[in-house]
């Protein structure tokens, strides 16, 4: 049997472009909507592609109006807006760096100005950089990874909270690497561990206000970040080492986001779901 799970490919620009991937990731929801997010407004960082796109489309199918922040992937963002509207919902997108406090504040302000409320925040944007040795991680890379993955999450959550109340939900994308490490993504893995701690700390802080905070820790998922991070040879074997023997698709993660966003998970806060292909974590 072939050792390859995907064709060899590489993209030079982070966070990567979905329309240049082959094969394209699967983002389409697998079932009809049932109105589980009817009347809600959701904000998603990194919503133009990958897990963010799949989540945006699924939320729209379930009745939510969807706003998303993206960095500079104009073609992917336009396609995601089209997909949201095809579900009969309303879409708003904004380009900007999630690691910039002012961008985060402006994004939230525009959501409130356009939709008048905010019920769901999905902290999903991230970046990662392949380095085989800790000594090869420059100060610039270290700061950039933390700026996007941690500072951006703080900035946008802080901006969103004054507009959220009882029944609102916050969902953070952490990673299997927070539990098992990743020896060529050391700075990324440590940010994902910090996100895990953020979920646990913030959930306790907001429980009395009726705002639930949970997370999703995906394993190897086929998103633009993968060809934009790894050498082509490693992309070709991506996901083969998990028990299911293949990479996951974004539409295999989005239902976990939906579950945590809606009332189906009303008795859960401070918890993490694990769509990771069968890797056992957490003891």
Structure description:
It is built from 8 helices and 7 strands. The protein is an alpha/beta fold and 283 residues long. The protein has one domain: Rossmann fold. It has a 7-stranded parallel sheet, with helices on both faces. Helix 2 links the parallel strand 2 and strand 3. The model has no long low-confidence stretch (mean pLDDT 96).
Key descriptive features of the protein:
283 residues; alpha/beta; Rossmann fold; seven-stranded parallel sheet; 11% strand
Layout of helices and strands, plus pairs?
Elements: E1 41-45, H1 50-61, E2 65-70, H2 74-86, E3 91-95, H3 101-115, E4 120-123, H4 139-160, E5 169-173, H5 177-180, H6 186-206, E6 212-216, H7 232-235, H8 254-261, E7 272-273
Parallel strand pairs: 1-2, 1-4, 2-3, 4-5, 5-6, 6-7
Helix pairs in contact: 1-2, 1-8, 3-4, 4-6
Strand order, sheet with most strands: 3-2-1-4-5-6-7
Roughly how many Å is the radius of gyration? 18 Å
From the helix content, strand content and strand pairing, which structural class follows?
alpha/beta
Structural domain count: 1
Instruction: Note the overall shape.
Output: globular
Per DSSP E runs of 2 or more residues, the count of β-strands stands at 7
End-to-end C-alpha gap: 33 Å
Low-confidence stretches: none
Look at the structure and give the mean pLDDT.
96
CATH architecture: 3-Layer(aba) Sandwich
The CATH superfamily is identified as NAD(P)-binding Rossmann-like Domain
SSE ordering: EHEHEHEHEHHEHHE
Share in helix: 25-40%
Tally of individual helices: 8
Find the CATH topology: Rossmann fold
Instruction: Give the DSSP E fraction (strand runs of 2 or more residues).
Output: 5-15%
What is the CATH domain class? Alpha Beta
Biggest β-sheet: count, sense, barrel? Answer: 7 strands, parallel
């Amino acid at each position: 049997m072939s050792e390859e799970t995907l064709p060899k490919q590489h993209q030079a620009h982070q966070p990567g472009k979905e329309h240049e991937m082959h094969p394209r990731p699967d983002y389409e929801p697998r079932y009809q909507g049932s109105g589980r997010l009817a009347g809600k407004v959701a904000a998603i960082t990194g919503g133009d592609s990958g897990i963010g796109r799949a989540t945006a489309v699924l939320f729209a199918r379930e009745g939510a109006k969807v706003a998303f922040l993206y960095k500079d992937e104009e073609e992917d963002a336009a396609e995601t807006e089209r997909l949201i509207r095809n579900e009969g919902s309303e879409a708003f997108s904004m380009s900007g760096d999630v690691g910039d406090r002012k961008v985060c504040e402006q994004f939230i302000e525009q959501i409130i100005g356009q939709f008048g409320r905010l019920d769901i925040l999905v902290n999903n944007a991230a970046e990662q950089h392949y380095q085989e040795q800790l000594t090869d991680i420059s100060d610039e890379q270290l700061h950039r990874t933390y700026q996007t993955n941690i500072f951006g999450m703080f900035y946008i959550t802080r901006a969103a909270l004054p507009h959220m109340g009882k029944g609102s939900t916050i969902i953070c994308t952490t990673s299997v690497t927070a539990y098992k490490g990743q020896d060529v993504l050391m700075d990324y893995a440590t940010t994902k561990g910090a996100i895990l701690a953020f979920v646990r700390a913030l959930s306790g802080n907001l429980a009395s206000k009726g705002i639930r905070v949970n997370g999703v820790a995906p394993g190897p998922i086929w998103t633009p970040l993968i060809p934009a991070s790894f050498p082509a040879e490693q992309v070709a074997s991506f996901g083969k080492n998990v028990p299911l023997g293949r990479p996951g698709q974004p539409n295999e993660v989005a239902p976990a986001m939906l579950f945590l966003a809606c009332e189906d998970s009303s008795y859960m806060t401070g918890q993490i779901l694990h769509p990771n292909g069968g890797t056992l974590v957490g003891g």
